[in-house]
Amino acid sequence: MDDTNTSTANRNNAASQKVQDACTICLEPITERAVATPCNHLSFDFLCLVSWLQEQSSCPLCKAAVLEVQYDWRGPDDYKTYHVPSKEDTTRPVAGSTHAHQPYRRRAQLRRAICPIRPPVDDILERRRRVYREGLPSLHIGANRISQYKDFTQQDFLASDELQTKAKQFLRRELKVFDFLDNNPRASSRDFLIVYIVFVLKSHELRGADGRAEDLVAEFLGRENASLLLHEMESWLRSPYLSLEDWDGEVQYPAPRRELEERRTAKRRTG
């Protein structure tokens, strides 16, 4: 059988094999199949394989160089492609990284435990940076007919192109807040993190009690940033708004702790 026929056969298998197949990397059930190309090995979960490839750009099975990862299979010729970053971008050391060597093993451990005037872009990003700098989670809005906010589950997210599009829209802007990503080769690029986080949400509840989604995102953003980012994303995804500008105009935040202390001090002085 020639290479073309072999590749076609593997793609047919990737589209049809069941999720109970075990991932070669973590030995857990595959939730989103990924195919390493050009070798066409396909016994991987997407999250495991892309995490593996952040550390070494070779197939876990045959050690051949992996140039692309095919994923989100809907048919033999209907899939998406993630382009593996060049080796120069992924082998530089990362200062201060506490999980730089085995993110794919951490996944296995976790599973086992398991419109007004538009302001300038710089002003918007500075406001978003302040949210993370001050640790300000947006105020909760209940789900009802008046607010039009709607709760959703992991299964809802998995089945909804609209929710996935909104998530990508949010992440495309929100990840610009984290300047440290510019010097972090483990993150490879913000485009990679967008794909990665969306697949995390396809596999786990966004704010599940087990905290798995937060743990996986924290590998790249740190615990506090990951927790707040997921909180903010949940607020945006639950909202009825289709543009971030509209959401920006309505979302509300508590006063920073510093301001509250200043108000209490001023009140005591006048009292």
UniProtKB/TrEMBL annotation:
Reaction equations catalysed: S-ubiquitinyl-[E2 ubiquitin-conjugating enzyme]-L-cysteine + [acceptor protein]-L-lysine = [E2 ubiquitin-conjugating enzyme]-L-cysteine + N(6)-ubiquitinyl-[acceptor protein]-L-lysine
Keyword field contains Cytoplasm: no
Keywords for this protein: Metal-binding, Transcription, Transcription regulation, Transferase, Zinc, Zinc-finger
Domain of life where this protein originates: Eukaryota
Pfam families the UniProt entry points to: zf-RING_2
Catalytic EC class: transferase
Signal peptide: none
EC number: 2.3.2.27
GO MF, any single term: ubiquitin protein ligase activity
Domain RING-type residues, every copy: 23-63
GO biological process: protein monoubiquitination; protein polyubiquitination
InterPro entries to which the protein is assigned, alphabetical: Znf_RING, Znf_RING/FYVE/PHD
PANTHER family the UniProt entry points to: E3 UBIQUITIN-PROTEIN LIGASE TOPORS, TOP1 BINDING ARGININE_SERINE RICH PROTEIN, E3 UBIQUITIN LIGASE
Name of protein: RING-type E3 ubiquitin transferase
